[in-house]
What does this fold into?
Amino acid sequence: MSQNQGDEMEYVANADDNEMADVDDDIYFSGRAFGESDSDDDDDEYDPLENRITDTTAAEARRGKDIQGIPWDRLSISRKKYRETRLEQYKNYENIPQSGERSEKECKPTEKGAMYYDFWQNTRSVKSTILHFQLRNLVWSTSKHDVYLVSHYSIVHWSSLNSKRSEVLNVSGHVAPCEKHPGSLLEGFTQTQISTLAVRDKLLIAGGFQGELICKYLDRPGVSFCSRTTYEDNAITNAVEIYEYPSGAVHFMASNNDGGVRDFDLERFQLSKHFCFPWPVNVSTFTLISMFEIIDMETLLELSQSSWQI
It folds into this structure.
């Protein structure tokens, strides 16, 4: 493969925001790597090819324009050839070897032909910052037109109706709660590295790499609550879920790498329940059938709401 074609392959890979190459752990967990620049312009300075990618509308896509805006007609490699090469070379990350092959045998064949979704718009004006493929929920949609995402040290809102971006919370400096709640860290945090996000019913909750939790109501100024869930070395907040009890009480739960799942009552921002497990918990959720589920890469546990025991 020529050097020119190799550069174009790398350029196309960079345009595919859903695929991430491996990141060195020492760099990944350092504050320098996570948003070493406060401006997207610095990134663009070293990526002139990506700057040529323009926004794509549904009408343009119907006329044949690539939905990611990649100018295949100006590249020496075709989309088909690139896809073939990508499928040959790219290896999916697996916690359990051959888990993909085994699951394919157990799953039913997909029925094709129906339209699952229809492309509407692709914009390059807002860029999310996702430095590792195992981070989740850093892009959050609350409606057909409202998207919340992490861009470096900022949580921003983007409206597809007017194509406008607005900053909701900036954690590059000092963030402290303006409300007083028992257990809240009044001193707050500085330069919080955001690892996960949840937004629901005018409430935004951000989880951090060091077990931080930051709660902010979108219709109120300032931050309502700050908490450090754990001081363990392996403290990354993997996921946050906001949910409603059958009684109407609103809670949220945080899943951490320290093996803990913590349930908070949002009325008073108080820790309600704390579950401990011998493995890092990637995801937890409260289902409609009143069951509390703890999910990691290998195990699914169900806890009864009435007893809250395994």
Summary: The longest helix spans residues 3-15. The chain has two domains: 1-124, 126-310. Residues 126-310 form a domain with the Methylamine Dehydrogenase; Chain H fold (CATH 2.130.10.10). The two ends are 55 Å apart (CA to CA).
